């Protein structure tokens, strides 16, 4: 029986401890919230004070008149309008300068100091319309694909189209696959690029004679085989030559001198061919279109002019989008180790999209490490996504090179050979005039010019300088927060004073209800004993004491009790020492006349008379 009360006491003590701990946690949370709120108020007050000080000491035009004490409102508003107008005008002009810097910071003009006496001859690409050898096609179809069996001639149309493989002929090549035996394992695993080089036409069957600088040359030494995006071709002075498994950089560059007897190349093809002319630095590919289609019985002659644009080194301070060109060593190609060119960038873009859609690259691209070459099974995929791969809008990141060369055909003539006129059927490509036209792209509006323009506009309209910006950062960051930490007590006192002034005072004085009714003066009756008795109204007025207005002080401002006690102690210290006075109470009604002794005491010594209800 005795254990039950003790158990209950323990339970009650446990419950009390829990309540105390919860109450302590709530008080601690409340204290932390109040501390953060006070810190926020101090930071805000410090920010206001620093703003006032910045306006008073700022060197910006007209700013100090806005916050200066004693200035009339009209004058402050006038200076505010002037400063706002100057600020808006400066911002508008600065934005226009920034737009000019972003869109048109360079200028291209004719280079008059060009004295180079040697010029690289352009790349001439000859792509036969039928670049295959019939005997080689029959041999490969019978021995390699047919396995020495009858019916191997079904592979011959596929092999002929394979030498002309391009993005234009992919659909036609894929359509011929339906005529081929589906069970041919040799065709499924065959390297298509190797098959092309086995059946392609030879150089001796493509050219008859060649002349360069008015001298006879060996055509096969100058024209190298290249498998390009236009099919199988032969290139003169091409940057790259290739075989079925490797691509080689051509280091023998052909140049022209002003003193040369002839500035051209002449050759006689033996097959109908497309002829391309482009810069040596560019890569032969889909981005170039043929200048001429040569027929067997025709003589073609066209004179060209070269226009070269180069960019000065100081343009590297601008972004690629601003100068609209890329320096050779600025961007690296992903699949080929070569200097940047526009055609190389577009070529790699098409390779990347081929990998994205079909997980391989077409066979007319040189072998790339770790990337498979498309086989027969992948040709339908390439045919399906040809439009996506060749779409130039998905290659917007490719820009022209900062050294860009363009060839224009100034004069073109084509003569058809007849039986009466036994003239040579040949092609002549020659420079029209010397010197070569060269343009220079240089910076018109660089970073220094932009900085000078910004400073001039800001100084003209606002009197702003670079150090003015440092002052703004200093006043509103470091100085504001340092004041919160180092002058915290002063900020607390200022905050209290500001908030006390903002509180509305309440009238708590006790006055007679009939105060607004002024009674008519009555004729005084002489009092017994010869003494004049005062009017009750006048006596009541003399006995009144108005209670001073009571403000809420810090009790209504501060939520923390410790801060309330500090405010009370601060108020008590400023109060004068207490003085004791005798208080004479007066009745609340005029019907009861006060005692004469009390009236005599109240008139004879310092005392306070309270006319109202006692608590």
From TrEMBL:
Which UniProt keywords are present, listed alphabetically? Ion channel, Ion transport, Membrane, Sodium, Sodium channel, Sodium transport, Transmembrane, Transmembrane helix, Transport
For this UniProt entry, the molecular function terms from Gene Ontology, in alphabetical order, are:
ligand-gated sodium channel activity
Species name: Anopheles albimanus (New world malaria mosquito)
Cell location = Membrane
Annotated region (Disordered), positions in chain: 1-31, 511-536
Q: Domain of life here?
A: Eukaryota
- InterPro entries tied to this protein: ENaC
Q: Which GO terms describe its cellular component?
A: plasma membrane
Q: What is this protein called?
A: Uncharacterized protein
């Amino acid at each position: 029986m005795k254990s039950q009360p003790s158990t209950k006491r323990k339970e009650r003590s446990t419950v009390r401890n829990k309540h105390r701990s919860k109450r302590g946690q709530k008080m601690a949370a409340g204290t932390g919230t109040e501390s953060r709120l006070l810190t926020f108020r101090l930071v805000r007050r410090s920010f206001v004070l620093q703003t006032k000080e910045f306006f008073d000491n700022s060197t910006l035009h007209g700013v100090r008149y806005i916050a200066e004490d004693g200035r009339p409102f009209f004058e402050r508003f006038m200076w505010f309008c002037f400063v706002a107008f100057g600020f808006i005008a400066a911002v508008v002009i600065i934005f226009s300068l920034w737009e000019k810097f972003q869109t048109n910071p360079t200028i291209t003009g004719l280079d008059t100091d060009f004295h180079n006496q040697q010029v690289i001859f352009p790349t001439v690409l000859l792509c036969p319309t039928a670049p295959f050898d019939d005997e080689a096609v029959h041999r490969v179809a019978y021995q390699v694909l047919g396995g020495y069996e009858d019916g191997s001639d079904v592979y011959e149309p596929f092999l002929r189209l394979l030498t002309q493989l391009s993005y234009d002929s992919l659909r036609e090549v894929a359509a011929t696959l339906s005529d081929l035996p589906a069970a041919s394992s040799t065709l499924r695993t065959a390297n298509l690029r190797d098959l092309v080089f086995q059946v392609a036409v030879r150089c001796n069957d493509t050219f008859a004679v060649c002349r360069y600088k008015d001298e006879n040359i060996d055509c096969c030494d100058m024209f190298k085989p290249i498998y390009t995006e236009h099919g199988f071709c032969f290139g003169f002075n091409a940057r790259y030559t290739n075989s079925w498994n490797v691509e080689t950089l051509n280091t023998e560059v052909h140049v022209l001198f002003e003193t040369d007897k002839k500035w051209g190349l002449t050759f006689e093809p033996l097959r109908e061919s497309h002829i391309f002319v482009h810069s040596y630095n560019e890569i032969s590919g889909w981005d170039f279109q043929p200048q001429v289609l040569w027929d067997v019985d025709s003589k073609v002659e066209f004179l060209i002019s070269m226009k070269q644009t180069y960019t000065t080194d100081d343009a590297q301070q601008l972004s690629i989008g601003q100068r609209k060109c890329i320096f050779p060593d600025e961007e690296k190609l992903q699949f080929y180790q070569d200097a940047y060119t526009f055609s190389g960038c577009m070529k790699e873009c098409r390779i990347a999209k081929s990998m994205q859609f079909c997980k391989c690259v077409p066979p007319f691209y040189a072998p790339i490490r770790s990337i498979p070459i498309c086989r027969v099974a992948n040709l339908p995929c390439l045919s399906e996504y040809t439009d996506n791969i060749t779409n130039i809008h998905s290659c917007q990141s490719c820009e022209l090179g900062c050294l860009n060369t363009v060839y224009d055909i100034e004069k073109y003539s084509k003569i058809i050979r007849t039986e009466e006129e036994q003239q040579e059927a040949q092609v002549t490509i020659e420079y029209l005039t010397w010197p070569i036209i060269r343009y220079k792209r240089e910076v018109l509006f660089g970073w220094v010019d932009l900085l000078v323009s910004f400073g001039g506009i800001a100084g003209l309209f606002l009197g702003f300088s670079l150090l003015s910006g440092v002052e703004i950062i200093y006043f509103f960051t470091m100085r504001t927060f340092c004041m919160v930490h180092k002058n915290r007590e002063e900020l607390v006192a200022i905050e209290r004073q500001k908030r006390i002034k903002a509180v509305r005072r309440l009238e708590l004085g006790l006055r007679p209800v009939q105060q607004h009714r002024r009674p008519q003066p009555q004729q005084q009756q002489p009092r017994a004993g010869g003494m004049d008795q005062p009017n009750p109204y006048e006596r009541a007025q003399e006995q009144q004491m108005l209670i001073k207005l009571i403000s809420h002080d810090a009790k209504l401002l501060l939520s923390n009790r410790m801060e309330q006690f500090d405010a009370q102690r601060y108020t008590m210290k400023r109060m004068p020492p207490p003085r004791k006075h005798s208080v004479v109470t007066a009745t609340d009604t005029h019907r009861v006349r006060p005692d004469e002794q009390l009236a005599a005491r109240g008139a004879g010594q310092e005392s306070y008379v309270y006319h109202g209800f006692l608590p």
